[in-house]
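Minutes, project huddle
Topic: does the predicted pose make sense with cobalt (II) ion bound?
PN asked that the exact inputs be recorded in the minutes so nobody has to dig through chat later. Recorded below.
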Amino acid sequence: MGNDRIVLLSKREIAKMREAGKLAAQLLDHLAPMVKPGISTLELNDEAERWTQAHGAISAPLGYHGFPKSICTSINEVICHGIPSVTEILKDGDIINIDVTPILDGYYGDTSRTFFVGEPSPLAKQLVEVTAECLQRGIEAVQPGGRVGDIGAAIQEHAEAHGFSVVRDFVGHGVNRVFHTAPQIPHYGTRGKGKKLRPGMVFTIEPMINEGTWEAQVQADGWTALTKDRKLSAQFEHTIAILETGVEILTRPADD
Ligand code: MF3
Ligand code: CO
Ligand code: CO
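Predicted holo structure (tokens), as shared on screen:
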């Protein structure tokens, strides 16, 4: 994976990515009203799978390196890659990240949001708001001719200014007809460092921001990544394209 070349997509390929990204955003919009106390993460998974198929797409996570379900559902202290389960029931005060990646006509749209289940605690609310702002600031740091390090620096500054930490073990990634490819996009770093940002590059920015330590532990299932201190973690993800003129968010919801 580290030897992958950075691929620059043509206008035609970016148009295909735009369709996949739009579908991914619509899938999250569709799942959002189901996020209520009492629902299981398996019910969210199964509706996502049904909706994806009904829209002529394929769920990329299902079977990816052996991942057993169609979406990732990551609750509270789960950083990412939570596996939907019939025994995992949402309860009032939880935060849950839902990460979806439909494949439409061969192209991948990768996006996630963190949702509140009922009423969040003030701390959970602040963490989730700051994490959404981190993604926004990361996107605003992208410009043709800039560097990958500009993105992580913007995110890290904002998270740490609020006393939160940035997960190191998972990064954003190039995405096209391949789920995870070059470049890697760390959510921490130094301005002016790293690979040059060029028109035609398409990648995700997906900061995972923790209440406490940034350190992660992967569970025995080989997937579920938890905060080492079991404090809260939140995440938002968009797939973006660099155009000659600037940046386009391919997974932006229609009403945003
Ligand atoms: N969608 C995740 C990402 O943002 C990857 C999930 S891989 C899976 O990169 F196998 F866990 F589904
Ligand atoms: Co991703
Ligand atoms: Co994702």
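Observations noted during the meeting:
- The mean pLDDT is 98.
- The chain has one domain: 11-249.
No decisions taken; revisit at the next huddle.
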